[in-house]
Amino acid sequence: MALVSVALVSSAAQLRRFAVARQFGARPLTAALDALGFVQADPIRAPARAQDLTLRHRVVNYRAGDLERQYPSLPIEEDVFINYGFVTRRVSALMHPRAGAGLLPLSSNRRAHALLAYVRQRGEVHPRQVDAHFAHGRVTNWWGGQSSATTQLLELMHYKGMLRVARRDTGIRIYAVHQHDTPPRGAAEKRQRLDALVDIVVRKYAPLPASSLSSVVRRLRYAVPQWSDMIAKALLRAKQRLAHTSIDGDMWYWPADEATAVTEPLDTVRFLAPFDPLVWDRRKFEQLWGWAYRFEAYTPVTKRKLGYYALPLLWRDAVIGWVNASNGAQGIDVKAGYVSGRAPRDRGFRNAYEAEVERLRTFLA
Fold it and tell me: In the predicted model, is pLDDT for residue 25 greater than 80?
């Protein structure tokens, strides 16, 4: 069982400080991706995509779009983890092959193998090429609209691991054949892989209250549907090996090898992405900072309280409000709202806020 660092994290204030202190840094892009393991993707740009807004706080000299521009040369894959996004090759190898999970209906097998042969022959394919070659027609997609049947089959084959995203062409996935190592041999190796995936997700989102730990680990059913019946036991093993302590009646968990001694927070303002590791778990967010953040891009305008794409505003070790950033005639326009109703009167806040706005401008330039 992991040793518990109760003496170093014994109050809600210390927990908040620990949660913030372990998140940020300035690393090369490859090193940051390796540390994160997974970066959630979202197509909305307001003012930039979520993956770029997440990485700018963790990658030295990062600019919007760097991940997509450099993707073909990076050791990463577009794939499903607990959500859709970018995973390192190490994480991809732990999840694949997604074999024996009934992920392709029998009626599609012949089409899938014919399509796979076509992609292998061409090297890389655009969905329009595939559709023109096979003309499979149109089907109803998950949202009730009409999609190309070949596009849907490409996506399903990508999820199963038969194909990979080689690059993007004006946002459209360009597919290539994906080769995987052999599947794990025996139950012990499956458990090892699943435990490694649990550790990756915990390291990304920790510290986690018990309810959030259970929720995020169960989402690994999207990453490894072939082992979904093993996830409950993997969660029990995680609770035994992770560092943990009880604060205000809740048990909190984090990686056992992490030091929890933290220093005074820096006088820094950060505008966080809606899916930043500090923000993604709304339950944890509300427990740490005492208010409910909601992502309102898909909320009707009349019901929005924070804004279309509100970015949580972190000051020192507290999320005290949010900003909405948009491109205006005079450049980037940033408007802030505060939980207390007003900005902090702290002498350093205004300078730190203006410095973050300038960093945002540079990132978008």
Answer: yes
